[in-house]
Every structure is written in C-alpha cells, then in structure tokens.
Amino acid sequence: MKLPNGYGSVYKLPGKRRCPYRAIVTERWLLDVETGKKQIRKTIGYYETKNKALEALAEYNKSPFDLESSKITLQEVYDRWSAEHFPTVSESNIKGYKAAFLLCAPLVNKRFVDITLDDLQFIADNSGKNTPTLKKYKVLVGMLYKYAVIHDIIPPDRNKVQYIDINKAGNPNAYNREPFSTSEIAKLWTCKDANEYYTVMLMLIYTGVRVSELLDLKKENINLKERWFDVTESKTQAGIRKVPISKKVLPFFEYWYNKNDCEYLLSTPDGKHFEYRNYYDSYWKPLLLPLNMKHRPHDCRHTCVSLLTAVNVDERTIKRIVGHKGQGVTQQVYTHFEIETLLEAIDKI
After folding, report:
1. What is the pTM of this model?
2. Could you tell me which residue ranges the Tyr recombinase domain spans (predicted)?
3. Is the dihedral of CA 201, 202, 205, 209 positive or negative?
C-alpha cells in the first residue's frame, strides 16, 4: 500500500538486525541549483516489524514531535527529572522514587517516545509488588511523563499514565502484617537488658512511629522533660506531628539521648547514623530470631494502634499519635492541653 505524499516511509535495512525496519520522514527540502530539490530526512526509529514501524509513523503524523528529543531514553528523562525534583523533597521520598524506578529496569534504555501503555502495564502486572509500591510506581511514571510533555519530548496526548491499572496488584509471597502479641511484648521486656537494641523495638511499639521516623529522629527535636518529640519529615503530611513519649519507654529515650555525641537519637555501635537496611539486617532480624518471632518493623506501628484501641482511646487521638491520614492540616497546631491529652493516652498502654 502506497503511503500519502509527505507522510514518510518505511523500509527494511539489509543484513541481520534485531530491528531492521526504519521509519523516516522528510524534515525539510533544500534547493540545489545543480540538481534541483534535495530531501533532508530524519529517522523516527528502528523497529522489529514493518507493522510497528508503520504504527510509529502514524503516531508521528498524528502528533509530530521533536525528532532530536525523541532520541531521549527513559533513563535520561529520569536523570533530568530527578536532578530538578530531588532537591525539593525529603530523603525518604527520594528513596521511594529510586525504589519505584528499579521496577522500570526493562525499559530504561528504550526511547521515551516508544514506550507504550502496554509496556507500563506489563511492569505493573509482572512486578509482584503490592498496592503501596505500585502506587509509588504510578506516581513516579506520571511525574516523568509530565516532565516529558513540558520539555517537548512527547506530545500531551501520549501521556497515558492514568490508565495504568494497579488493581490487580499483589505479591503471592507478601508478608501479612501482624501486631505483636501480649506474650511477645512481655518477652521483649524480659530481653531488654540482654541487648540495648531490644529497647528500640519497645520504643517503636510504644510510640507508633514508622521505623524511618525513629531512625531519622534528631536529638534537637526531642523534649525529654515534657516527654514529646517532633517528627519533621514523614511519608505523608499527616505524619508531621508531635509524638508523646510513654513513661514506660522514657528511660530508653534518655539512655540513647545521652549515649554519645551523634546528632541522631539512635546510632550504630560506632556512633553513626542508622540506615534502614543496616538496622533491619544487622539488628532487627538477628534479635528476633532467637525469640522465634517473625515480624517486620511496621508491625510495631500496628501494635501501638491495637494497644490504644484496646484501652478505649478515641480514634482521633490515635490518629494524632501515629500520624495516620485523616487528620487535616488545620489540626496540626498543638496546644499544651492537646499534648497532655496525647500523653495521657499513650500512658494507658
């Protein structure tokens, strides 16, 4: 079938190639006084089949894009976007974006203009990840596509991220979160003097903070006298909050606060700031193993909520303590009375 004039063309390159079909368009004409007009052509791309090349040609004619920009890969878009975006967000968000981008490994060297909704959906369907991770993946890809549209790498109608379906998310080997039982908590109290890092588990249980929030807690944000500390960086807006310190674990906070000169409350044996992977692999798992317990750090957060619920603390107060979504921005100004209310609640467990 002959293509319309000015539409472009597809032809097969000689030899054995993985993508032998080349789609080209005429960029402009030059006037040669001796030979007449001369076409200046540019390549849209190289494709495995003729049909794919024709589809790319049709896509280009429907919404022409800058052919130089079209050479940019997913990796290059990510590098440019992250260089602009990362300085404006927290370290925990950066880690989340980096983890989400790892899912895109099969596409990193593919030209951004060639990535299809099917490609993005395939990543989601075959990642084996659960909904929270895939939500982060979808958010990241959406931001990359927005960046690509703004910088004329793709036309606006190529942004199909909203159609990525993550409703079928699920890892068949996923870990089901379970709160610590009463007997398990009692066992941790029994072991607290055997290894100082058992106290960290109890601090997590009796504050309800995320493990990242405790590992990143700086001493300057702790008020031991009034028994509270500030979480200044969190995964959610609701996570920015004042957290009451239970009388039961106050001695542990005092111990770690005075242990060394590290600016962070918790530290490694040599006084360094903890990275999550180091804490989890070197302390969390080895300490639970002899106790025959199988838990993740986030189970401490669920345990705190369960304990507060069991002693009839109202839902609003629980959300204030653990920083769950649902407390509005207008609720984040704390009065002295409210701090006392939170302390009274946390001391019940």
Report:
1. 0.54
2. 175-347
3. negative
